[in-house]
């Protein structure tokens, strides 16, 4: 009986994993801890001058597909699109809360490290092209397809101020946040670092 259960679990696991979004570049917990220790701790900078328009986002990626549509196709299952690359059907599982959606309008593309947070932790000194690259980064775990109202609840808050509804996602969330901040040499606050360490302790 135990063998049968093990086989069933082994057979089901790939299906369950495949149903979840998998942005690239998520580090292991040990790598995330190492990267966290390398981040500069500093008070959050000023929000003066910040605007979402400072981060040109949802740029054209290929053909008529912009960044949002590209992530919807990457993170969804059986996604069908119109000739303009808009998702017309599909299934999306939001890793933040575990909800499943079949309408693209119920799904937001979240910036793991919010644009405002990035501005206050180093991006205010970047060039326009650097901010555009950050806002449309498909090479690191910065863009996630998630439930729209959960994304709105998060807003521009850091992990010491907001965490995903699913505690089982804390490890991945913290690892992804740390990876993005590390890649872009963004600073973290002491409260942010403490919260991230606590989330990594769930790994």
Automatic annotation (TrEMBL):
Q: Which residues form the signal peptide?
A: 1-19
Keyword set, alphabetical order: Signal
- Write out the transmembrane intervals: none
Q: Which InterPro entries match?
A: GmrSD_C
GmrSD restriction endonucleases C-terminal domain location, by residue? 102-196
Q: Which Pfam families match?
A: GmrSD_C
What name appears for this protein in its UniProt entry?
Answer: Secreted protein
């Amino acid at each position: 009986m135990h063998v049968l259960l093990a086989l069933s679990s082994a057979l089901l696991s790939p299906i369950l994993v495949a149903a979840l979004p998998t942005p690239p570049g998520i580090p292991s917990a040990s790598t995330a801890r190492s990267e966290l220790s390398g981040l500069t701790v500093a008070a959050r900078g000023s929000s003066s001058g910040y605007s979402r328009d400072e981060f040109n986002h949802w740029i054209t990626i290929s053909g008529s597909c912009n960044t949002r549509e590209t992530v919807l196709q990457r993170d969804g299952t059986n996604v069908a699109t119109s000739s303009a690359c808009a998702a017309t059907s599909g299934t999306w599982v939001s890793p933040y809360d575990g909800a499943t959606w079949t309408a693209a309008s119920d799904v937001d593309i979240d910036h793991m490290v919010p644009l405002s947070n990035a501005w206050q932790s180093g991006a205010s000194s970047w060039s326009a092209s650097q901010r555009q690259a950050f806002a449309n980064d498909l090479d690191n775990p910065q863009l996630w397809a998630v439930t729209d109202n959960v994304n709105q609840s998060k807003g521009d808050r850091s992990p010491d101020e907001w965490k995903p509804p699913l505690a089982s996602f804390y490890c991945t969330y913290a690892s992804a946040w740390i990876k993005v901040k590390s890649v872009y040499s963004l600073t973290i606050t002491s409260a942010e670092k403490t919260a991230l360490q606590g989330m990594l302790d769930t790994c």
